[in-house]
Amino acid sequence: MKLITKKNISFSLAVVMAGLIITSATAAPKTEEHVSLANPALNEFVADYMASFDDVEFEMPVQVRLYNAQDELVFDGSAEEMDSEQQTLLRKAKLLTTMGSAKYYKIFH
């Protein structure tokens, strides 16, 4: 009688996995049902649906992070939220980098 060892278990698992891979690779792919755009009613519906988004603006608000000369965060928010004092500081600052819709500024003096 053979002993059950790690080597025998590993070998049997490898054989089972190989068998599963081979049988799944030879299986026939399922056919999918395709929707034809030759239907004029469907084309009109899609055109009307897409036209409903013409007036919608998908724009990310610009996020501003403003740091002073000591690397302390002075402002963090959207550019529209800035008051006049923060806008004055922003004009004095230099743009460090831009990542996505976020802009990082630093005041050096």
- Helix- and strand-based class? alpha+beta
- Summed over residues and divided by their number, the pLDDT gives a mean of 83
- Biggest sheet: strands side by side, in what order? 2-1-4-3
**Which range best describes the helical content: under 10%, 10-25%, 25-40%, 40-55%, 55-70% or over 70%?**
25-40%
Shape: flat
Flag low-confidence runs: none
Distance between the termini: 85 Å
Percent of residues in β-strands: 15-25%
Describe the main β-sheet briefly: 4 strands, mixed
By DSSP (H or I, 4+ residues per run), the number of helices equals 3
**Cα radius of gyration in angstroms:** 31 Å
The secondary-structure element order is: HHEEHEE
According to DSSP, the number of beta strands is 4
Task: Please describe what this structure looks like.
With 109 residues, this protein is of the alpha+beta class. Helices cover 39% and strands 20% of the residues. The chain contains 3 helices and 4 strands; from the N terminus they run H-H-E-E-H-E-E. The chain has helices at 6-26, 40-51, 84-92; strands at 63-67, 73-78, 94-99, 102-106. A 4-stranded mixed β-sheet has the order 2-1-4-3, with helices on one face. A hairpin with a 5-residue loop joins strand 1 (63-67) and strand 2 (73-78). The relative contact order is 0.11.
Question: What tags apply to this protein structure?
Answer:
alpha+beta; 3 helices; 39% helix; 4-stranded mixed sheet; single chain
